[in-house]
Amino acid sequence: MNNQIYKPSNKVSVPGLIVLFFGLIVVGFGIYFIYEVLDGWIPLIYLNILLAIGAGFALGGIGGQIVKKFRLRSPLFVLIVGIIALLIANYLRIAVYCSRDYDKNFDKVFQLELWTGIDKTDPKLDPQLKVLYSYIAPLSSDEALEELGGMSTSDGGYADALFDKEKTKTDFKKFIGSSYEEFKQNFLGCETIYDLYVNYGGFVKPTIVSLSTHPDRLFAYLKCVNEDGRWTIKSHRSGLSDSLIGENDNVKGFMLWGVWFFEFLFLTLPAIALMLDKAKAPFVESEGEWAEPEKPMPEFRFVIPPTGRLSTVEGLRTEMMKNAECIFTLDPIPAIAPPAERFYRVTFCRSRYYDENFITVVQSTLTNARKNQRREAKVIKYLSVSADYIATMFGTFEYVVPAMCKGENRAAEISKENKERAQAEQDNIGKPHAPAPPKATGAEAIFDEPSPYSRARIDTSQADSFAAKELERERKEAAAQQPAFKQPTSGDMDSLDTSNLDLSNFDFK
After folding, report:
1. d(Cα 55, Cα 61) in Å, to the nearest integer?
2. Checking CA distances to 431, which of 284, 295, 312, 404 falls within 20 to 30 Å?
3. How far apart are CA 325 and CA 386, in angstroms?
4. Helix, strand, coil percentages, rounded to 5, for the chain
């Protein structure tokens, strides 16, 4: 199993999945409720974004603990259950949002007095009510409510979310009553618009329960909020502003749908990521427990070479998949040494007795020295190694090998091999050795033989050399057979007798 990436066994328990499902819904509802309260109170958009991400991580941390407790080792099942549960939790969150929006923007309006300026003890009231009764009695429930309260249940706006139309028809008949006296009693019994709508208009207050149990009302209300908007770019503080009476600069429409979509991602993606990360963590099947990280984790840091195949993340990953011990060829950084700008860091998790070990290697790069900020790139995660590897790792950094680790510490042997290799490379600097070409065989050997023309040229050169030598030998033999004579010391004219010549009578012209 060594030099292999850990793969989950995909084993789950049905009780664990059930607990995960309902746990995410209940805990998610609680976290999202707190988020909605704080989100409506904080006016800064940037803080709201951080708050949403924080809520997602908080929910993911709790979900990860459920995955760990019930030993859920199937990322696929955890993903499916998590998505469904979080969708339900977000549905309840939207119900919380809409319910709180009603309390902020409509509840006080509906509590206004309905019959402003009417004196119920005025003797002239009775004739007026009789006229009103004769006028609204023939009307339908929608028309009557529009006359009395200023809001119709058929306008396609908030009425779709606030009124139960079937209940409205029944309640309106009860409001008109069977006689004028009954109508008068119902009329005078309504102090506010809220009383009229609740008692006789089929109004259903949008609470968390009423909205969550009626999806049509919930999304109708949410659609109206999207059409009106609640906040501007400058401030996230919720409010209708002038949205109900005219144009405004609130964020709404397509842009607001986009904001809500990204809010949903911020609230769910961190939670899903944390749960999946836990489900993919190494699990020791023989012990029935999760592999635990070494505590405390020693500092295993290696120098990144300037060049070579081990100087990059991709190169080191490729080499470690072939042989995990290749990282031991790098220089270790002592624990007391100051942190380098770039280095490889190794961590690991293990079984109880170090029978199964899984290392993770990251590349750490300093990005801001003043703030000590670093960027990490994952080289390899959960690579299975032996107990010998862990013992050698401890020995390389001169740490004490854990007592329960029975692996062989090969740190001294590997260090010697590294020194010999470095010395050999240093000795060969500037001395390149051209490798001898392999001897050709088969068809290649035919083409490696010299051509007939080349052979003739070679033979001719050899013959010319032999003829030259023979010519030189014959000349030497001929010179040896000739008689010796005195070599003249002057020109050819020295052999002529010129003693009788009269040079004075010689005409040189």
Report:
1. 10
2. 312
3. 11
4. 55, 10, 35
Cα–Cα distance measured from residue 152 to residue 136, given in angstroms and rounded to the nearest whole number:
14
H or E element that contains 380: strand 373-385
- pTM for the model stands at 0.73
Cα–Cα distance between 98 and 363 in angstroms, integer?
47
Please tell me the distance from the alpha carbon of residue 304 to that of residue 315, in angstroms, as a whole number: 12
Radius of gyration over alpha carbons of the chain, in Å? 50
The residues, any chain, with a CB within 8 Å of residue 330's CB and separated by 6 or more, are 302, 303, 304, 305, 310, 344
3-class state of residue 205 by DSSP? coil
The two counts, helices (H) then strands (E), for the chain are 18, 7
The residue type at 297: M
102 neighbors 217 (Cβ within 8 angstroms): no
What would the two tokens of residue 48 be?
Answer: 């709201």
Q: What is the largest CA-CA distance in the chain?
A: 194
Q: What is the mean pLDDT of residues 174-196?
A: 81
Helix (H, G, I), strand (E, B) or coil at 365: strand
Please give the pLDDT value at position 204.
84
- pLDDT digits 0-9 by tens, 45-97: 888 899 999 999 999 999 999 999 999 999 999 999 999 999 999 999 999 99
Residues 228, 252 contacting (CB under 8 angstroms): yes
Nearest to 295 by CA among 346, 337, 332, 348: 348
Could you tell me which residues come within 8 angstroms of residue 130 by beta carbon, excluding any fewer than 6 positions away? 180
**How far is it, in rounded angstroms, from Cα 462 to Cα 455?**
11
Does residue 102 sit in helix, strand or coil? helix
Output the six-digit token pair for 424: 């050999």
Taken in order 118, 122, 128, 129, is the CA torsion positive or negative?
Answer: positive
Say what the pLDDT of residue 463 is.
Answer: 46
| DSSP code of residue 503 | G
